[in-house]
Amino acid sequence: MSSIFIKIINGEIPCYKIAENSDFLAFLDISPLAFGHTLVIPKKEVNYIFDLEDDLYSGLMLFSKKVSKAIEKNVSCKKIGIAVIGLEVPHAHVHLIPLNNVGDINFSKSKLQFPPEQMLELCNKIYASFNSLNKL
Q1: Residue 103 is part of which domain span?
Q2: Backbone CA torsion sign across 114, 118, 124, 127
Q3: 110 lies in a domain?
Q4: Residue 58, domain member (yes or no)
Q5: Is residue 79 part of a domain?
Q6: What is d(CA 93, CA 67) in angstroms, rounded to the nearest whole number?
Q7: What is the spatial distance between Cα 122 and Cα 12, in angstroms, rounded to a whole number?
Q8: What DSSP assignment string belongs to 11-76?
Q9: pLDDT in tens for each of the 136 residues of the chain?
Q10: pLDDT, tens only, 27-56
């Protein structure tokens, strides 16, 4: 059975896409821990991150690094934190979370909500930054 992420990849469910290539997709989390919280996923459906083939795993981390640089250009924060939980959706994924203190990466706290127009504006800014930082 396809995960929600496969439905996002296939365009069946909309997302705030901020970066994409042939192997990976990054989009804003709709229930974020912080403004700019992003999910990065491989397009190949694998449940557990440590079951990814080595080249796909390495590619996911390198892609996440590039995405984090684009987030940093557009969200005021001290650093971008990274978390891999893997229990909520049966599809390997990485959380990139703008941090100002260690409490910003607490998955037990209440999730935030931002107006769609604010999410879209941030999405467009990060998308543009990602593309300008990663031109060939």
Answers
A1: 4-125
A2: negative
A3: yes
A4: yes
A5: yes
A6: 13
A7: 22
A8: TSS---EEEE-SSEEEEE-SS-SSTT-EEEEESS--SSGGGS-HHHHHHHHHHHHHHHHHHHTTS-
A9: 688 999 999 999 999 999 999 999 999 999 999 999 999 999 999 999 999 999 999 999 999 999 999 999 999 999 999 999 988 899 999 999 999 999 899 998 888 999 999 999 999 999 999 999 887 4
A10: 999 999 999 999 999 999 999 999 999 999
Q: Which residues pair with 81 in a beta bridge?
A: 97
**In the chain, how many domains are there?**
1
Locate 90 and state its tokens: 């049966």
For 61, phi and psi rounded to 5 degrees? -70, -40
Whether 91 is a known active-site residue: answer no
- Reading the block at residue 114, the tokens are 């931002």
CATH code of the domain containing 98: 3.30.428.10
Which of 37, 91, 93, 95 is an active site residue?
93
